[in-house]
Structure formats: C-alpha cells, structure tokens
Amino acid sequence: MGKITKCLNEWNATVEALGQGKQTILIRNYNTTLPNFILYPTVSYANKEDYLESFQPKYRNFVEENALPEKDNSNFLVKYFAEVEKVIEKPVSRIGSLKNYYFWTSEHVKSYINSSKANVWVLRVYELKEPVMMGRTKGMRYANLLEPVSLEGVKPVLSDSQFSKILRDL
C-alpha cells in the first residue's frame, strides 16, 4: 500500500471513535478532494469546559476517557488511516437520521453546519500495523506528517460485511 504523509486534523475522541468502529462518518460544511489520509489526533474540544454536553449520553464516558491523545512533546500518537468511500450531501434537517453512525448530539452537529446542507464523509478506517509518534506541519483541516507513515499491514477496523451494511443503510 505504500506510505502517506497527508493527514486530517481531528479531535482525539473522534479519531478513537472512528478507530474503534463506534463512528463511521464525519459531518462537515465542506467536501474533501483527498481520497485518503492519516487521522491526526488533536485536543481542540477538550479545551471547552462543557464539551461532554455535545455528545450522545451513551458515549460520554468514552469521550471523557479519550479526550486527550498520547503525546511526546509536540508529537502525537498516530494509529489510524482512513479512506473516503463516498461523500453524501444531506439536508441538515435530516442529520438526526444518521445518529447511529456518529457520537455527537444532532443539536451539536446542526450548530456547526453553516448552510442548509451538510457533507457526510463515509470513511473506511484502518488500524496501522505499528502506531507511531509523529509531528505534523501546521494546518487547520489538513496537514502533512513530518515523515511518511507506512500503510503496509493496515487492518480494517470493521469487517467487510459490517462496512457493506453501513454503506447500504446510509
């Protein structure tokens, strides 16, 4: 599979939810032109005092446990790679119908979408064979890792049948 340097900056709890198969989509204001990327953990939401209120109650313990990534100075532990299977445009009023595929509250999602339609990224997530401590360049959404990461031996976090069912249900 080669190596990759492109990464998506994403809050660690979301990265872990994707990496553990608890979440399979990202909901954004924008589309993506990248077919794949490393999921690079950040701390953004953990800095807010009431951040747990943004999550479905059944996931709050998980979110709290995974709020902060493992780090060593400015390097963060990178564990997952994602491929964008497809992007679906969805009316914001219909976001609640996807709640089984993400762990935020529908109200939170609607609060950050600034148009009548949202872009739903359906991601196939893979666990790296060996997690690595890695730094990155600056970037708001995307960045580049300071060194390439090998994609040899990555394993999908969901089986083919589990992922196919999700694609059919969306």
Please describe what this structure looks like.
- Helix content is 18%, strand content 40%.
- With 170 residues, the chain is α+β, with helices and mostly antiparallel strands.
- The protein has one domain (3-169): Roll (Archaeosine Trna-guanine Transglycosylase, Chain: A, domain 4), CATH 2.30.130.30.
- Strands 1, 2, 3, 4, 5, 6, 7 and 8 form an eight-stranded mixed beta sheet that branches.
- Strand 4 and strand 5 (75-91) form a beta hairpin.
- The protein is globular and about 40 Å long.
- The model has no long low-confidence stretch (mean pLDDT 93).
What does this entry show, briefly?
The chain has 170 residues and is of the alpha+beta class. It has helices at 12-19, 60-65, 106-112, 160-169, and strands at 3-11, 25-28, 36-42, 71-72, 75-91, 117-134, 142-150, 155-156.
